[in-house]
Amino acid sequence: MLWFFFCVGLLILAYFTYGKVVEKIFVINPERKTPAQTMADGVDYVNMSNSKVFLIQLLNIAGLGPIFGPILGALYGPVAMLWIVIGCIVAGAVHDYFSGMLSVRSNGASVPTVVGDHLGVWAKHFMNIFALILLLLVGVVFVLGPAKLLASLTPINVATWVGIIFAYYILATLVSIDKIIGKFYPIFGALLLFMSIGLTFGLIFSDIKFYSVGLDFFTNYDPKGLPIWPLLFITISCGAISGFHATQSPLMARCIANEKSGRMIFYGAMILEGIIGLIWCTLGLSFYESPEALGAAINAGSPSKVVHDISIALLGGVGGIVAILGVVILPITSGDTAFRSARLIIADFFKLTQKDLIKRLYIAIPLFVLGFIISKVDFNIVWRYFGWANQTTAAIMLWAASAYLYKSDKFHWVTTLPALFMTCVVVTYLAYAKIGFGLDITISTIIGIAGSILCLGLFFRLKR
């Protein structure tokens, strides 16, 4: 447990130190009016308080990723905690800060527009397609995950819960952001914090021991012998770095009241998500007697079973159910904003105003039909494609932030270094994984390094 608290301490310290460094590099302007003030429309551009925007941002970005990902990552051993801490501080929180603040500076523009502004028109068109695919995958993943958990607690089957959740998504996507999201998500945020704190204390005061005590943090303990590189960095995305957040930050960029709040809302929310990821990774490393036992539980019922078993064991019947509901709320509150972001991206592309309900329906209905069709695909297959698409989006967003800093004569390495690393991760994974080309890991790694070097060379050819 000392290692867990040390990691949490590092994340909190980073918010007050490295977060300020990132803010100074960006150079905020507290006197500059934000999109919530200059483009208010009562639907998507709505001025809200910092506390509301922070909690909504946290719930938007914290879907199943910081729970399922760290549980799966725990199979590799304590090295998973290292990745969450380092990745969150120097990559994930930096990524979220720039995706949010660059959107603020671009009138609340969605991620394809932000990327296009700094990497060119071709990048914008690519991101329009890629972001929509990612958001549809996210929406589907964040339907199936909570539906399975709810089915385990009630006599209602998974298919029925899928239909109920989709119905809620349609409603939340169409109405003004302050009607449902602005009113209820802060309450859900309190439930999320209860779940996180409750499980932490449950672990502290239980007689459960780390199965990994005394083990080498750089040894791979995966029961199937799957390699840490590059799989761990795809498996644990939310909690370390996630491109999905780049699609969500513009939602709150349209509601933020002052640029000086950006560090708390964007960098800070990611730090808190990293802590949630650490909690579930620690639980995965602690609750079962070995990596093999954890793997068996996952195989028996996906990470949903692990969440159910741990919550009930540590917090009892009532407390466990409340904790599980917190885990259910996370993906649902991210899934609805995923579809909302998809609607706004399409609206931006076709220059359709979204103040009228009928124009929102023109976009939303086809999106939900397509999402429902994808939900029929095997969950494990959808999750793998989601993982790769998610981290690829993160790499592209980091390159866009680097281009902004480079062309502004600011210190671009704060985003360029994590962009290089994530590019190497996603290219290597695509070359190695079965959903990609299925090549040897050594050859795949060489291709990944070459891909990163190529991107760096193209980056330095950007015209000032």
From TrEMBL:
Pfam families: CstA (PF02554). It comes from Campylobacter mucosalis CCUG 21559. It is found in: Cell membrane. The keyword Transmembrane applies. Belongs to the peptide transporter carbon starvation (CstA) (TC 2.A.114) family. One of its GO terms (biological process) is cellular response to starvation. One of its GO terms (cellular component) is plasma membrane. Its main location: membrane. This is Carbon starvation protein A. Keywords: Cell membrane, Membrane, Transmembrane, Transmembrane helix. It is a multi-pass membrane protein. The keyword Chloroplast does not apply. InterPro entries: CstA (IPR051605), CstA_N (IPR003706). Residues 4-197, 312-427 form the CstA N-terminal domain. The chain crosses the membrane at residues 75-98, 126-146, 158-177, 184-206, 226-244, 265-288, 310-333, 361-379, 385-406, 413-435, 441-460. The lineage of its organism: Bacteria, Pseudomonadati, Campylobacterota, Epsilonproteobacteria, Campylobacterales.
